[in-house]
């Protein structure tokens, strides 16, 4: 837990404006899959997406392992906050919709976590699992430039954020299928040829929107990948 509190300082002190923009773009992409009245958001960090989800569901529960980050989330009337690692979490209800965004790469034993999360889902519920993409264009370029030996090698930001691995669409699909979940759809978010810092310094909103739209044409090579799954 103490190590997680150290990692939480990155979100509080080092996160870029474009990092937050990417979160907004991820929300725009997955919102069409929302269903039901009850939602669980796993590892919401400081609650950027939470502020959106609270208006999409009657009941929103968020579970976060970092107390520092959890305390950053305002006290919304329909939101209940839980301080726990997902492996230790025992929710008071089951959910129509679960969002597991940018968490699987942080977990040492992902199958254990997915097995636990499956039990939180209503029989006809939906879970969306999103991760950074090893086959993102900016990582492919980094290999060509000699900055990475492989697209699956952890880069400096991966290490700062405590990542154990980098998924692509195939490895993420295998992870999810091995857990017993059924894949309904796969999507990608944002065609990213440069680092977040370079984009923040040099791109305007029109360029960002253009590369967001381009990502729908090349989902296997976007910055983020998503799988929509059910029981």
Q: What is the secondary structure topology, with strand pairs?
A:
Blueprint (H helix, E strand, L loop, with lengths): L1 H12 L3 H14 L7 E5 L7 H4 L5 E6 L2 H4 L8 E5 L11 E7 L8 H9 L2 E12 L4 H8 L11 H5 L8 H10 L3 E8 L6 H7 L2 H10 L9 E7 L1
What gap, in angstroms, lies between the N and C termini? 31 Å
Q: Given the structure, what is the number of helices?
A: 10
Please describe the biggest sheet, giving its number of strands, its sense, and whether it closes into a barrel: 7 strands, mixed
Structural class: alpha/beta
Write down the overall geometry. globular
What number is the mean pLDDT? 93
Q: Which strand order does the major sheet show?
A: 3-2-1-4-5-7-6
Helix content: 25-40%
Query: Which consecutive residue ranges, at least 5 long each, have pLDDT under 50?
Result: none
Indicate the radius of gyration in whole angstroms.
17 Å
Beta-strand share of residues: 15-25%
- The helix/strand series, from N terminus to C terminus, equals HHEHEHEEHEHHHEHHE
Tally of strands: 7
What this model shows, in words?
With 231 residues, this protein is an alpha/beta fold. It has helices at residues 2-13, 17-30, 50-53, 67-70, 110-118, 137-144, 156-160, 169-178, 196-202, 205-214, and strands spanning 38-42, 59-64, 79-83, 95-101, 121-132, 182-189, 224-230. It is globular. The mean pLDDT is 93.
Name some characteristics of this structure.
231 residues, alpha/beta, seven-stranded mixed sheet, 7 strands, globular
């Amino acid at each position: 837990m103490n190590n997680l509190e150290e990692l939480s300082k990155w979100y509080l002190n080092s996160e870029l404006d474009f990092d937050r923009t990417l979160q907004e773009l991820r929300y725009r992409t997955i919102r069409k899959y929302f269903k039901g009245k009850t939602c669980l958001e796993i590892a919401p960090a400081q609650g950027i997406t939470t502020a959106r989800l609270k208006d999409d569901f009657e009941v929103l529960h968020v579970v976060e392992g970092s107390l520092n980050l959890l305390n950053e989330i305002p006290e919304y009337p329909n939101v209940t906050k839980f301080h726990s690692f997902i492996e230790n979490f025992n929710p008071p209800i089951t959910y129509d919709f679960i969002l597991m965004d940018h968490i699987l790469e942080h977990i040492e034993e992902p199958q254990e976590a997915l097995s636990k999360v499956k039990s939180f889902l209503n029989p006809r519920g939906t879970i969306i699992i999103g991760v950074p993409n090893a086959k993102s264009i900016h990582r492919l370029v980094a290999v060509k430039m000699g900055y990475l030996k492989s697209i699956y090698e952890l880069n400096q930001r991966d290490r700062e954020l405590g990542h154990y691995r980098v998924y692509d669409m195939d490895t993420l699909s295998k992870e999810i299928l091995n857990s017993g979940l059924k894949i309904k759809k796969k999507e990608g978010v944002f065609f990213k040829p440069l680092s977040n810092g370079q984009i923040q310094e040099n791109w305007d909103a029109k360029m960002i929107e253009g590369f967001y739209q381009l990502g729908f044409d090349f989902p296997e090579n976007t910055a983020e990948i998503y799988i929509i799954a059910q029981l």
